Each structure stands twice: as C-alpha cells, then as structure tokens.
Amino acid sequence: MRIFLKSIPMLILGVVLFVPNVFAANSVTRLDGASRYEVAVNVSKQGWSSASTVVVANGTAYADVLTAAPLAYKYNAPILLTESSKLTKPTKNRISQLKPSKVIVIGGSISVSNNVVSEIKNLGVSTVERIGGRSRYEVAQNISKKLSSNSKAVIANGTAYADSLAIGSYAARNGIPILLTTAGSIPEPTKNAMSSKGTTSTIVVGGEISVSKSVYSQLPSPTRIGGNSRFEVAANIAKKYYSSSKAAFVSNGYQYADALAGSVLAAKQNRPMLFTDAGSLPTATRAVIGSNSKNTFTVLGGTISVTTNVVNQLKNVIVGKKVFVDAGHGGYDSGAVGNGLKEKDVNLAVAKIVNSKLSAGGAIPVMARSTDVFLELSERVAKAKSNNANLFVSIHANSASPAATGTETYYYTKYEADNSKRLATEIQNRLYKALNTQNRGVKIGNFHVIRESTMPSSLVELAFISNVNDASKLKSALYQEKAAQAIYEGIIGYY
Ligand SMILES: [Zn+2]
Questions:
Q1: Which of residues 315, 338, 359 is at a domain's end?
Q2: Does the keyword DNA-binding apply (predicted)?
Q3: Which residues have a Cβ under 8 Å from the Cβ of 104 and sit 6 or more positions away?
C-alpha cells in the first residue's frame, strides 16, 4: 500500500484520500462547539427549549458522570458540563436561558465544587441537589436510588468511559440504572445497589477485559454485549437494540464529554450512540451503519473531535457497504498480454485505487487479491460470499485483433439480474467517458465470477491491451486513476 501510494503523483493522492462532497446523500447534522461546554449547550438547544431540571456534571473528569444519563432522561433534563472549580460561561448562560427550578449536580465536591453550587444558586435556581458518593461506584449507586424500580441493571467497567457511554442512550430510554464494576471484582456499592433494586437480570457491556468472566458469573442472569474495541461494543449495542433505526449519534470514541452530553438527546430520539476515530470511521462503525442502512446522523463535537472527513464518509451513500473488488487473473495467469502490458498488472493497479477510494469514502472494500497471486474463479466468488459482500466488481482488460478498441461492462442474469445490469450501466456510462474510449456498451456475459456471485455483480473490460491506443491509456497512471474514479463513482451511482 505504502509503496503503491508513493508511486502516484501527489495531486492524484489528494483525490484518493479525500471524499468529494458532490456525492453527499445521507443526512448529517453536526452539534458543534468551540469547547465541550459549548457542545453540551448546543446539544441542549437541539433537544430543549425549556427545562425544569438540568443536570450538571464535570467536563474534565469522567469518574462520577458515567451513569448520569438515565437520571437526566427521567427528569427530561439536559446534561450541561462544568469545570470543577467554576461554572464555565456557556454553561452559565444556558442555565440562565433555561431557567430550571432544579439543578442536579453529579459527583462529590472534588468533581463539582461547592463554589459551582453557589454560582448555580446565584443564577436564581431554587434547588440544587448534589448526588455524590465516596467513589464512582457509590455515585452510581446513589443515582440508581433516584430511578424508578427496574428489574434490570447495566453493568460496565468504571475505570473506562466508552462502554457506559455507548449504552447510555438505551439505559436512559428504558430506565435501567448503570452500575459500575472493576474488571476483576464487583465493588460493594454495586452489590448493594443490585440487592436494594431487586435486580434479577443484568446487561454486561464490554469484553472480558472490561468485565471478567469471574464478575460475569457472579451477576444475576447476565447477557454480555461485547466487542474487541470500544467501536465494536457500541456497534454491537446498536445492532442489538436499534437495528431498525435509520438514525444514529456519532461521537469521538476517545473523548467522553460530547457523548455524555449527547446521551440524553440520543435517548429522547431513541437512537444509538456510535463511536468514531477523529479522522476516519472505524470498520466496526461502518459495518453497523451499512448492515442497518443507517442514513441519518447527528455528529457530536467540533471538527477536531470529528473531522470533516468523517462527516463526508457519513454523508456518502456507500458508507459501510461491503464491496468486493476483484482484480482479474494474477500469478502464473497473466491474462491478456500485449503492447508491453500484462493484464493482471493493469487489473491490480486499478483495483488497488478503487479499493483506496472506497475505503476513504467510508465503504468496506474487500480485495480478491492485493498482490500478484493466482486465485481460482470459484475462490473469488467464495471469498465475496464469506465476506458478505454487498456488491462484486471484477476488473479486467480486453484483448482481440489490434483494431478492436473501447470499453465494455458485463453482467449476468442468474442472480440479481436487474441490479447487476444497473451496476454495470452506472459504471460503464462513466468509464468510457473517463478513458475517452469507444463505448461498446453494457452486455450480458457468461463469465464465472458474475454468473456465480449471488450479490449484484459486474465485470468491466477497461479497454483493449491488444490495441496500441487503448494500451497506452492502460499503461498510464493518470488513466488508471481516471478509470478507478469512474468505477468508484459508478458504485456510488448504483447506491
Ligand atoms: Zn481478463
């Protein structure tokens, strides 16, 4: 990959790595802000024009605040953030606008100082209630006491924030308390909370590193929602509880403040919280978006937390779609040979650029081969199937008499005939224009990979290796890039 990218001129690299806005189709709303305090204010503006209760939590230390979402939801209260020692200006202004009669402060006086409590009272709030505790576990227990009775409890690791924030919206919406544990043993306040709440079943969030088998086995009727990363845990929660929802919240998975502030709004809208890296959507997040066909996103935070590139990926209709990119031939099978070219090399070069574009665009591309190796046709079909590919695109170059010239794209009628034809048409109509070749059209072709693939599939013949003019284009990095762009845009056109 690195070696390959080095060989492309910088101008082309730019095109490969950034998603053009022109394909925007999914709906993305960003709740922005210059700071986490402003983001929380903007979340509250989105969900509340007035509020009789507001929850205030520490914006710089997560220990006490992880379990606040169900409480805030119960009182239909936005969560605003504060520094420990003083109320930040955006938070102060927002409390003045909302004019709540009550503010609930989360955590002990180390999390939110008595000075902040005084400042809130000075804004004319008649009741300021603190829900504290000697530890995060006790804070969680004390929050659970404020919730209505529920036979279920969520159990998450209290020394990290991602898992409890991923489940926050679901727990809040369903009035389920979030209780905290260490990986290896259940803290006393959590045991006490379960016994006083009469917990008969538990939802354990996170893998065995977060909540060990030993802890799991001590919990009442546990069900685990695990994952290999915070992104996967959040994706698995979304898969389990929100598979029919087309909408989701997206926040940076390595910062807790935006997700915390957003959790109550997500609960009000009955939407899951997904996590992202700042620069690009992680595969697990893409996968759940693609498999649930999500198309409406609320992004939490500014462009440093969630870059424009992530927003463009979310907007892109191919986000999360699994596209099998099949570079024809390989290894001892050179394919067509002529004019100094081997077809297998041309196919692979174009396939790699298509792969990069799909990946940068938010899709989940799978390459049949990424090196010069031989694969049986049946292996290619099997690989696409085992990867649950949504689309199959096979890339070839043509050969015939020296006079034969032009671009053509094939589909077959055995599976997904209409969709395959549509895919072939979307690609063909862009490809011959991009290569400035003769348009030989969309055709039915009885080729193994498009005959046996059960998903919509098409096979492109870029141009003729056996024709001098066509071959000169196939040789050129610029035309390879143009061809890949046309195929990429054809896939987007299909969706
Ligand atoms: Zn071929």
A1: 315
A2: no
A3: 53, 54, 55, 56, 71, 72, 75, 77, 128, 129, 130, 131
Residues belonging to the active site: 461
Identity at 91, one-letter amino acid code: T
pLDDT in tens, 432-464: 999 999 999 999 999 999 999 999 999 999 999
Within this chain, do residues 147 and 263 fall inside the same structural domain, yes or no? yes
Considering the domain architecture, whether residues 153 and 300 belong to the same structural domain is answered as yes
Report the candidate in 387, 247, 411 with the shortest Cα–Cα distance to residue 322.
Answer: 387
* d(CA 399, ligand 1 centre) in Å: 8
Give residue 378 CA to ligand 1 midpoint distance, Å: 15
Domain boundary among 280, 315, 350: 315
Report the CATH number that the domain containing residue 380 is assigned in CATH: 3.40.630.40
- H helix or E strand, kind and range, residue 135: none
Centre of ligand 1 from the C-alpha of residue 478, in Å: 21
Q: How far is the CA of 445 from the centre of ligand 1 (A)?
A: 13
Backbone angles phi and psi of 150, in degrees to 5: -155, 130
Render pLDDT for 265-318 as a digit per residue (tens, 0 to 9).
999 999 999 999 999 999 999 999 999 999 999 999 999 999 999 999 999 999
Gap between the Cα atoms of 157 and 155, Å rounded: 7
Q: How far is the CA of 203 from the centre of ligand 1 (A)?
A: 52
Per the structure, the complete domain to which residue 442 belongs is given by 2-21+321-494
